[in-house]
Amino acid sequence: MDFPEGFLWGAATASYQIEGAADEDGRAPSIWDTFSHTPGKVYRGDTGDVACDHYHRLDEDLDLMADLGLKAYRFSVAWPRIQPDGRGPVNEKGLDFYRRLVSGLRERGIEPMLTLYHWDLPQALEDRGGWTVRETAERFAEYAGLVYEALADEVAFWITLNEPWVASWFGHEAGVHAPGRKSTEEALLATHHLLLGHGLALERMRDGGREGNRLGVTLSLSPVSPSRDRDAEAARRTDGNVNRLYLDPLFRGEYPPDMAEHYRKTSDFGFVRDGDLQRISAPVDFLGVNYYMRHTVREDGSEKADFPSVGARIVIPHDARRTAMGWPVDAGGLTELLVRLHEEYGVGRIYVTESGIAVHDYAAPDGEVRDGERIEYLDSHFRAAREAMSRGVDLRGYMVWSLLDNFEWAEGYSKRFGLVYVDYPTGKRTPKASARWYREVIERNGLEDGTETAGGERS
Question: Is the pLDDT confidence value at 452 over 60?
Fold first, then answer.
């Protein structure tokens, strides 16, 4: 099963999850520094203060990427390294780190794919209202312009936002991610201001020229299925919240009418100003898709529902394989999602910018990390992606989440997604069996018949 010539095989990371050096070279606190240092917010009080110490191990990690044979590397820039107060002049020491990163990637023949915002909002901006106020969208555009001016000659791929749904609803309604707010109205405000920030940043970067650069945005998307026939409305509302509330503004220039009506009791959408949706729906050069699971839902009007604002809870099918996160594995959902984007929204160029699995990894006495479950997962999802391509989807690359085991947000260091095992006390990196398997996939630009099982044999 071959992939087209030039297909970008890569891996992804995020700044707060791997960098460490939380107070070095002028970096100021982000909302995740504040959140992780708040007792009870993160598993066992873990923080990203050190994380994988990528800031000090940059060359080692670049060599790891080269050894893996990566064609692309998706990373994010920490806004509080560039503008510690969220506005004002560039902190050159912070920017120098990303200059070294990009230069090191280029020297090794690896394509940089830069994400401007992966959830680490400067705390100074949160203190002024964060994503619930319009000013933050304007400040984000300013920040985007500064980073673009510095790196646009060396970086061709630019992603404005990572997963605005998670930032909005986990961070502002559920309260389980930074900044830890618990308000449906504030989640709607954050949704709009994040999308507006994307549109304003797109304008700012396009004004900067650099013909040939590709500008896009990354969404977390999931097919939604009803658990029973009578749950069809819950599934429609969940799809509206998780998918259409972002896809429709970006690709149709409107919020989905049924969802705007659904939320009228919470908000009159007065935060949407003339011209906002035109900015938000400006054409992108590609869409980044982060896929982890299908949502199977039931009606649930309680406050403990997984999606309380739309009255739905997740039900995991009894026969589903589960990851270490407890998420169901459904490779077919990726095919379904990609085909929907192509057929229903007319999305052109797409990159899978994240997809991966948490496994209960450990280093055996011989030092090996045998993660056959990850190999099975990636193999099935690569095949699902190729099936979508055979049905007309213009998929150009696949970034595995994640290059390294890392700080998994509210789960702290208890969950491992990496192709490379990290021993956190020492920082030692050990490529897992999946890393070696992935290197072979990249070398052949495709998959062999059969799948390696968890036991390490082929089937």
Answer: no
Binding-site residue ranges: 17, 118, 162, 292, 401, 408-409
Domain ranges of the chain: 8-220+285-292+325-444
**DSSP H or E segment with residue 397:** strand 395-401
DSSP string of 47-69, one letter each residue: -SSSTT-TTT-HHHHHHHHHHHT
The dihedrals phi and psi of 111, each to the nearest 5 degrees, come to -80, 120
Indicate if the pLDDT at residue 45 is higher than 80: yes
What one-letter code names the amino acid at 50? Answer: V
Task: Give the residue among 428, 333, 346 at the shortest CA–CA distance from 381.
Answer: 333
Annotated binding residues for substrate, written as ranges, equal: 17, 118, 162, 292, 401, 408-409
Q: What is the pLDDT of residue 459?
A: 35
Catalytic-residue membership of 211: no
Whether 163 is catalytic: yes
The catalytic position among 126, 173, 186, 354 is 354
Q: Tokens 């304008």 sit at which residue?
A: 203
350-354 and 157-162 beta bridge pairing? unpaired
pTM reported for the whole predicted model: 0.97
Q: What is the pLDDT of residues 143-182, one digit of tens each?
A: 999 999 999 999 999 999 999 999 999 999 999 999 999 9
Q: Is the pLDDT of residue 70 over 80?
A: yes
The CATH class of 8-220+285-292+325-444 is alpha beta
Joined together, the tokens standing for residue 393 give 């989807």
Structure tokens at 247: 């896809």
Tokens of 145: 């312009």
Name the residue with tokens 């900067």. Answer: 208
248 alpha-carbon distance from chain centroid? 19
Q: Which of 19, 163, 186, 373 is catalytic?
A: 163
On the CB side of 139, how many CA atoms lie within 13 Å of its CA? 26
> What is the distance between the alpha carbons of residues 119 and 31, in angstroms, rounded to a whole number?
8
